[in-house]
Amino acid sequence: MSFELKRPAKVILGLLAFGVLYGVYYQFSGPILEFIDKKVAPAEKQAQSIPKDTFKHTNASVTAPTSGVPDSLVQDHPLRVGVVTWGGYAGGEYFNEGFEASDKSRYFKQFGIKVEFKLIDDFNNSREAWKSDNVDVLWITADSFPTEVDALKAFEPKIIFQADWSRGGDAIVVRRGISSVADLKGKTVAVAEGTPSNTFLLWLLEAGDMAYTDVNLVKVSSAIDAAAAFKSGKVDAAVVWSPDDDDCVNAVKGASVLKSTRQASSIIADVFYVKNKFLKGHRAELKALMEGWFIGAAEINNSKESRAKAAKILAAGLNEPEAVTLKAIENARLTTYGDNIDFFNLQGNPSGVHGEDLYNAMAIAYNKINLAPAHVPTWRQVVDTSLLSELNMGGSTGQGPEGGVKFSAPTEQQAAAPAITTKRVSINFTTGVAELDENSKYIIQLKFGDIAKGFSGTRIRIEGNTDNVGSPATNKALSLKRAQSVVNFLVKEYRFDKNRFIVVGNGSTKPVADNATADGRAKNRRTDFELLD
Fold this sequence. Notes:
Layout lengths: L6 H33 L2 H7 L30 E5 L6 H6 L10 H6 L3 E5 L3 H9 L5 E5 L15 E10 L3 E5 L13 E5 L3 H12 L8 E5 L2 H9 L5 E5 L2 H8 L4 E5 L8 E7 H6 L1 H20 L1 H15 L3 H9 L1 E3 L2 H7 L11 H14 L10 H4 L3 H6 L20 H4 L3 E7 L12 H17 L5 E6 L6 H23 L6 E7 L10 H7 L2 E6 L1
Parallel strand pairs: 1-2, 1-3, 6-7, 6-8, 13-14
Antiparallel strand pairs: 3-10, 4-10, 4-11, 5-8, 5-9, 12-15, 13-15
């Protein structure tokens, strides 16, 4: 006999079946899940704990170590850093144990990431690589960034750390007969526009009271081409990179280095930048890059053995002799965590040169020669110091800031050395008075303050001058007191070493105009600021 269940009965039986099944699940699910959990590999669990979009790359996979690595990260592609043939990036390349991504790298062993340094010497090619995501982190100098930042604004570039100061890596070589910046007037000078070489030339001309139009520029695409133009005799002077400065001097009889960033030691600062979108998605990875870089820089700065090892690594990566790469490293100050704190002025240090100072000054200078727009993004808009603030490496060995340049008391020979540049500034003193008023202090800051900071490794001679009104003895004594007042202000305002300065009172013995006229006498009442060898 058959029968058909009514609808209410079907519902009741369904509920009873569900209850039985739930009871079975509750009884046995715990042991089953515990068994599965024990079988999950540690690396898999680690990968599951990191958001899927933390590292978005497209090429071959890279797996982080699964044990023994603090804060290890999972990557599917090495972090790619675009560099050029330059010794200032040695900190990162040394810590990476080479240019290639490798599990032998300290980045991998200590942080669980892989890093690749991609050598792209052609400026335009390096920018295209960065724009197309073939390079993640790219070099620039803070001083020359105003020339390109506007063209990159769609990518929201963010400077995240400083790698070095140029300390001899950039130089201007000159033919026989040129011994000062004033001698460059009307001469042909080869320079790669919009690059650190251009920055150096602009600073030299400013320190020498000369305009950009006072020299005949020969525009080339790179510092290497500038050196070639000089060696071939096509130009009177060229702004080049080391070691090309030595090559130029050796190749051209009577040639010499007029000035280099060994003395102009706070002008050219290499920094690295990323896209804002990349920064947001790769904070831990980039933070590890910076920490390892600073550790490597400190070791190289403080150990001959580490410098020798770094030179060997760079020789292999740059295809240059070790002697050349060692000199390249020594031609830079590899910046530490403390140097970066000062550079980005995170603790309000009033002394030294800050990245914002360089960026703002050169934005104006490059706009004047039509290489930068009238309005570029502010420093705050192009910098992100959040990773640097999180590092907290202040107590680590060798991570303190460099400190100011120290000078020995000048010898008679140094005091009488010929000036490389002379900048004449009219400072209005009250008749018979040697003290500076507030307006005079402002003029000194405006006309010479940045130059004195930028050329931080150079001695400065301050010469006071008067018109011919009054006795020669009185004028000489007064001009000396006035020059000393200027030095006292610079030492106090910028914390310069007082031994850096040579003070001279010329009185009325060095007129630059006719004392027979009021205008001429005004020009003769001046202070000369001279940069020496």
